[in-house]
Every structure is written in structure tokens, then in C-alpha cells.
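Job type: complex structure
Entries:
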Amino acid sequence: MKRRSTGLLTMVAFGYAFLYLPLLSVIVYSFNDSRLVTLWGGFSLRWYRSLLDNENILAAALLSLQIALVSATVATVFGTLVALSLNRLGRFKGRTLLTGMVTSPLVMPEIITGISLLFLFITLSEWIGWPGSRGAVTITIAHITFSMAYVTVVVRSRLSGMGQSLEEAAMDLGGRPLAVFFDITIPAIAPAMISGWLLAFTLSLDDVVIASFVSGPGATTLPMLIFSKVRLGVTPDINALATVIILLVSAGVITAAMLTQPKDKSRAG
Amino acid sequence: MIRRLQRGDGRRQWLRMALVLPYLWLLLFFLAPFIIIFKISLADPLVAVPPFTALIDWAAQGWDRIYVTLDNYLFLFEDRYYGVIFLSSIKLAAISTMLCLLLGYPIAYFIARQTPRRRNLLLLGIILPFWISFLLRVYAWIGLLNTHGVINNFLLWLGLIDQPLALIYNDFAVYLGIVYSYLPFMILPLYANLEKLDLDLHDAAADLGARNWQVFFDVTLPLSLPGIIAGCLLVFIPAIGEFIIPALLGGSDTLMIGRALWDEFFINRDWPVASAVSVVLLLILVLPMMWFQKAQAQTDAGAEAQGGVV
């Protein structure tokens, strides 16, 4: 028994080292003074300074944030409505099609989503003249479409675990449907909606493939810019950018975990 | 009672109306694109904008009006290149999935056996990289694997090697990249399953004289099969169409369908063939996808039944 746990512990330690050492090396090398990424030239913040001076990167980051904010918000509204309908409407016409359409993006190769949406935009602009040019709007539409699937999954699992007795009680007491919805249902599913929104936001900020297809010449998102730079190899300023992102995201995730911790069920392990 | 039913109906009516917009959205931006991609896969390539012939030729009369060709699909079958690429993608995705399982299972098993407090901490460690950009995590490996990268420098410094090893721009780096990026997708469903396993079963088996490995292979492993299936599908399905990992870490001889599709589209600009490749890739993925949706539906039904009890 003892020997087996030692073996297991080694495997687990190896697994975590495997997950974190690459990120650690990026962080360390972002402070490297040398332009040659692999040689240590002493501690320096020069790549962070050059990051702040790089207007292309800043503009791309701003565009990505705008797209992520809008697409995550719309995806959360749409995804919640779909989750509510699938959970509360029982059988209705077109339910199977809706289920299929909203779960498929979870397993669809991004490259196919990208190509097919580009074809749609080209066909539409031929038929009705919209969209005239591709860019931030078409990327936002694409991101809403695939991230609402994730929101639906998250909100649906919350809804199916919660039952309807509170809402029924409120209605029995004479609550109007919309009032009940905003006073009872929304607060109950709010944590799931927030997780869904964060997931949609992250997915949007992370997407290279779909954005590359549906974007036009004018719009370059941050991941598209990073991708085109790192295709040529390692660059020190991307190390600095990666470090900023890694630290920001880690701080956010750890804070969120700490905020939700006390409410956890205390089950004996 | 009647009033309550009416109230209920009123709310449902409201929800039905609210659903119209997301429903239309999905029809237009999810379903319609697939019909179009299918349509283009049946067209001839043209040197024009857009570079394919129209399916419905409005100028023609009668039967001539609908123009369909299977040439693009025939091309895929005749051209050995695409057969090799499809097989190679399936192989790369399948081996990576197995490697993920071998590495992920012990970790999920270990986490599931900890106290709740430690469990949350360990899970956070698995989930955290998932929130950090996929692209940047793949990028991190370039600096490690390069000819003059961290690993080679370290091995040279130790004196274990005289010359840098070829660690990047080959299939090895692609396997590494896929296992690294998709490991959380394997661990989380495995953990969700292993956490629910009844430990009494282990004690019973042990009391009856089973050895540790017997308990594992006869009790734990069969019971965790749903988690294994879910984890494997969550790795295999996206891995097969992966583009970023082979583009950044693979060599020119790394054949993956996602990359071939990108090149066919952006470099050759042969949209009908790219569409046909997409349709074939979807057909390959249909079975695993349906399997996944069935498993998902079962989990949902289970959760709903549980919710009903509570």
C-alpha cells in the first residue's frame, strides 16, 4: 500500500510540474535582458516597456476586450434563454433541433466553424449586401454563436439541480410571471450565469482560428497578432505579454475560488 | 389551481416569445453555414470572387438550373495525400488521447481520494491553466523545446548530450502539445466520476481478499468507464481538427487535417475542395459526437432526476 502511494504521488507531482513548468519558464524569460531568448542576460524590465510602447499590441488588446465584452454578454442572455426553454418548456416543436444546434458547437472543430461562417458572410453580402466588410462585427457574431453553447450547458446544469417549487410558490401568491422571473429565477441562476459569462469572455479572448477566418483586413485581435508573431518563433515582448496575462488570469481565478470556497459542502473525504 | 395553471401558461408564453431570437440566431449563424459549406463542396472551383460556381444558376432553364458535381469528393478519394492526412490525424489524436488518459487517470484518482479542502486546491491547480490562453500555453513550449531552448541548454550543461536534440517541429512536439493542452479536459470528467465512486465497494473487495491491483482492475476501472469515455471524447474530438498545435510545434511533415484545411483555404484558395474536406471531417466526427451527446443527455437526465428528489 505504502509503495503504491509513493508511485502515485510521483505521477501526480510529475503531472502538476508538467502543467506549470512551461508557464514558469515564460515568466522567468520575460525578465531576461538579452534579445536572444535562450541566453540569460540579466534581469530587466525592457520588454515590458517595449510592450507599453507597442501601439499595435495595445490596439489589438482593446479590440479583443471589446469583442469579448459584447459577445459574452449577448451569449449569456441567449444561452440563458435557451437553457430555460430546454429546462422549463417540456416538449415543444423544434426542441430536438435546438438541442442539437446548441450542443454541437462544443464539439465542433473550430476550423470548420470558421470556414462555414465565412461562407455564410460571403453569401449574405452577395444576397443582401450585408455585411459590407468583415471585422469586429463578424467576429463578435461568430463568438456569440459558439460561446452561447457553453453558457447553455452551465446554466442548464444549475436549473436542473434546483427544482421549481420557489417559483410556483411565488406564482401562487400572485406574482406576475415577469416579476417572478426577475425576483426568483434570475437570482437563483445568477452564479451559473456569471460562470457562463466568464467562460464566454475567456473563450472569446482566446480564439485565433475562427477570428482569422471571419475577420477582414482592418481588424486584428490580440490572439491573431500573437499567433502571427510566434509563428516565426519566440519573441521577448510576447513573453512579457504572456506573463501579464498569466498573472492577471491566475489572480482572477484564485480570487474567484476563494470567494466561492466558504459556501462549499463539507463532506467527509 | 386553474389560476396557477394560467399563470404557468403565461410565463411559458413569455419564454416562448423570448426564445424566438436565440432560435433564429442559431438557425442563421449555425445551421445555415453548414448548408452553405455542403453546397460549396458540390460546386466547381473558379478563379473569381467568390472562387466557386453557383449551385443554382438563375440564368439557366429547367433542370440545368441546379448544378451539382461530386468532383471534389472524388478528388479526395483519388488523391492519396488526403487519405494519408486523414489517417495521420486520427492516429495523432488517438495516441494523444491514450497518453492523456495514462497521465490523467492517476491524477484524477489521487485528487478524488483527498479531503475536500485539499481536493478543491488540487482541482484549482488543474483548472487554472484552462483559463489561461490556449495559444500562450502552446507558445510556452516553443521556448522550452527550441534547438537552443531551455531543455536543450539544460541537457548540454549537464553534459548528457553533445548536440542539441531535435525536440520541436516534429510529431513528438505535437503529441506533447496536445497532451499538455487537453490534459484538464481528461482529468475533470474522470475526477467527477471517481469522486462519486462508493469506497465501500473497495473495502468489500479488499475484505474478501482482493489485492490492490485486483480491486483497481475489477472494481474501480469498470465503474469509472463513463468518466473514461467522456474524457477520451473531450480530448479526441478537438484534437483531430487541431490547428494551432501542429502550426506552432509541428514540422512540415506533420500531417494534420486542420492544418491542411487552413492551407487549402488560405494558400491554394480551393474553396470547394476545402468544403469537401470539412464535410468528410464532420462525417468522421459524427459518431464520436453523437456518442458524446448521448452520454451528456444521460448525465443530464441523472442530474434532473436528482434535482427532482431534492
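Summary: Residues 80-269 of chain B form a domain with the MetI-like fold fold (CATH 1.10.3720.10). Chain B has 13 helices and no strands.
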